[in-house]
TrEMBL record:
Keyword Acyltransferase recorded: yes
Pathway assignment: Amino-acid biosynthesis; L-cysteine biosynthesis; L-cysteine from L-serine: step 1/2
Full protein name: Serine acetyltransferase
EC number: 2.3.1.30
Source species taxonomy: Bacteria, Pseudomonadati, Pseudomonadota, Alphaproteobacteria, Rhodobacterales
Pfam families, alphabetized: Hexapep (PF00132), SATase_N (PF06426)
Keyword Amino-acid biosynthesis: yes
Keywords: Acyltransferase, Amino-acid biosynthesis, Repeat, Transferase
Enzyme class: transferase
Catalytic activity, as annotated: L-serine + acetyl-CoA = O-acetyl-L-serine + CoA
InterPro entries: Hexapep, Hexapep_transf_CS, LbH_SAT, Ser_AcTrfase_N, Ser_AcTrfase_N_sf, Ser_O-AcTrfase, Serine_acetyltransferase, Trimer_LpxA-like_sf
Amino acid sequence: MAEARPRVATVDPVWQRIVEEGHAAILAEPLLGGLVHSSLLHHPSMERALAYRFSLKLASGEMSEQILREIADEAYASDPELGQMARADMVAVYERDPACHRFLQPILFFKGYQAVQAYRVGHWLWTNGRQDLAYFVQMRVSEAFGVDVHPAARIGRGIMIDHAHSIVIGETAVVGDNVSMLHSVTLGGTGKEDGDRHPKIGNGVLIGAGAKVLGNIHVGHCSRIAAGSVVLQDVPPCTTVAGVPARVVGEAGCAQPAVTMDHLLSDG
């Protein structure tokens, strides 16, 4: 009989780093011990920690932490992609937000990251035919974080939403991978039309604070939308648009605007 081969341990560098940072945080500030233990160190995986944070932040008199925890645990167990997207989002926030110095900050303190992960659970519910429960998650995310994302919207991985106050993303919106946006961004419709009526945002797009992108239009990959702009027409790839209504004012300025987070317009 052949000898059983040894099992290879699963390597999870993102979660391992969060755990290490958690221990260091307690040493630096013992008063955070209860928070860090209950939210991070008590859990065997990032998915279990995310499910706990989901239930803790969204629980109310209408639905208990226990029920919400069971919902999130089921989602993460059923779809491993949710955990992988959460890790990609974590790295995106760390790399693009100069206020983020440790991996544990988004999962503990940043409502943009937490809102995106809660949306992902709601989207899982929606795609599995549990629309009413998905609407409940949308409502609680809006109430708890000030972020209103329809559970049917499709959002890629590597998403960074900085500050995240007053974000609105409509039902038929599509957001690609590696997109960065700031507070008060709206991806909305233009009226009472039904059907496919919301923007399609390409990969690597940077959307400035207060920008409104309205209607079933396409924003090309690696483009920039300046703060305060109102975008009503398609945006070509690798360009910068600005104004009300927005118009092309130049090239994007770099290959990956969502990563560099450069919002300045050149004088040329």
